Amino acid sequence: MQRQEASILLAAIAGKRALVIGDVLLDAFVYGEVTRISREAPVPILSETRRSLMLGGAGNLVRNIESLGGTPSIITLAGNDEAGQTVAGLLEDCAPGRVNLIRQDGRITPAKTRYVSGSQQMFCVDRNPDQPASEASEAAIAAAARKAVTGHDVVILSDYGRGMLTRAVCKAVIEAANAAGKPVCVDPRGADYTRYDGAFLIKPNAQELSDETGMPVRSDEDAETALRALHARLTATASLIVTRGGKGMSLISSGEVIHHRSRPRSVYDVSGAGDTALAALSLGVAAGLALADTMALADLAAGTAVGKAGTATVSPEEILEEAVQGADDADWRVISRDKAREVIQSWHREGLRVGFTNGCFDILHPGHLSALRHARSVCDRLVVGLNADASVSRLKGPERPVNPAAHRAAMLAALESVDRVVVFAEDTPEELIRAIAPDVLVKGADYKADDLPGAAFVKARGGEVVIAPLQPGFSTTALVEKMKQAKA
Q1: Which of 95, 107, 130, 141 has the fewest CB atoms within 10 Å of its CB?
Q2: Is 360 found in the same domain as 476?
Q3: Any idea what the CATH number is for the domain that residue 234 is in?
Q4: Residues 11 and 154 in one domain
């Protein structure tokens, strides 16, 4: 999928409201190093260095919907235990005010603890409920769903097999959603998918589809045969999509089967990629996108997720970075001021040092390239502020700029040293610097550090002002004058 197409699809799903109903797990990761073997038994000893807690199961789906730009709400079931309290807090962090956590006395909140040495998972410990949801819990889930469906664009059943999505619950949710005209998407689990019949879309993976139908799902032909067999049994279900890992996805809808082939990637961790795919699929359904386009976007999102460690989420920015650039694409590195603020905040969360420089860059020359390379050398990510056309005219005269802002931005964005470009209308970048809060302000040696717009703000935040050396003999003004003389 090309970036321009991906950008259009991502814009369409932004802000769509998704109601997630399903099993939330508490995912714990215990990290450490193994340097010796136990004297008590021939097993390695993990010396713990840190641990982290995050949402798994339907909770990871909520995280992915939010990271893709959707607005998730959730109805889930937990026990009155410590894990349930932790899940409640984590859910509220990513879906504030949109969490309906139903408690069941005596129920164990599902949890999964993974022990990791270096980058290698050693083993995993599950803690699961030993019984399905009680009749009272079923009634409470169904009542909450009936009340909530009308306020959402899509309903998602995220079944992780922990006993919450019983046949009665699935039937009640699907009936309520259909009555309200809201599509239902399902991530299935276990045998007998008839409990999901009536959904708009059911998304098994290849192994799940094989288990459900008793048929192999190795080739395109296998996938088509299995999809047709399952679709024939689910007479009230509109569409089925099977995710097939590196082989892509296959869709059956209105009797037609479509295969989407994945682009080859380096796979680091498939944990949670199914949730990423379902999040994109469901938001695409909510936006009314064609299923073939939605499937392609979901595959691109899942492919982005498998390149990251752990049960990762992905952002639209990261998806666009994975997309193939087409010859006619508007470059995705040219972004708005508000988007720049979001991107830089995400870089800061990753511990990255963000630099900023600015200019008119009217006719790009080697002096510009040298300054930009120097700026990039003092930071992890470089954002370039670019004067808008009217600003250039006020600063340089009515005959400037030679090149319009769109062309200047595209040229800058194509440079390896530049990570993002933001066009600003003011004569100085002071307001832009205050809005995006970079760590390093870089400018050429023809300026004094203390005189630079935004320098005081950057320093007050603990940042740094760097003066880059100039490469002599290069000037846009001189080039313009030379062209005038040549024309005369």
Answers
A1: 130
A2: yes
A3: 3.40.1190.20
A4: yes
Interatomic CA distance for residues 79 and 101, integer angstroms:
10
The string of pLDDT tens digits covering residues 406-437 is 788 888 988 989 999 999 989 999 999 999 99
Residues 395 and 311 in one domain: no
pLDDT of residue 11: 84
User: Could you say which residues of the chain have pLDDT below 70?
Assistant: 264-272, 307-311, 324-331, 472-480, 482-488
* Distance of alpha carbon 195 from alpha carbon 191, whole angstroms: 10
- Indicate the pTM of the whole model: 0.69
Q: Which residues contact 272 (CB under 8 A, 6 or more apart)?
A: 56, 60, 64, 305, 310, 311, 312, 313
pLDDT at residue 483, rounded to an integer: 64
Residue 278, class by beta-carbon neighbours within 10 Å (0-12 exposed, 13-18 middle, 19+ buried)? buried
Catalytic residue among 23, 275, 389, 439: 275
Say yes or no: 239 and 265 in one domain: yes
CA distance between the termini of the chain: 49
Give dist(CA 427, CA 449) in Å, integer. 18
Interatomic CA distance for residues 67 and 62, integer angstroms: 9
CB 370 within 8 A of CB 471: yes
Q: 394 lies in which domain range?
A: 337-487
pLDDT of residue 266: 54
Task: Specify whether 315 is located in the same domain as 440.
Answer: no
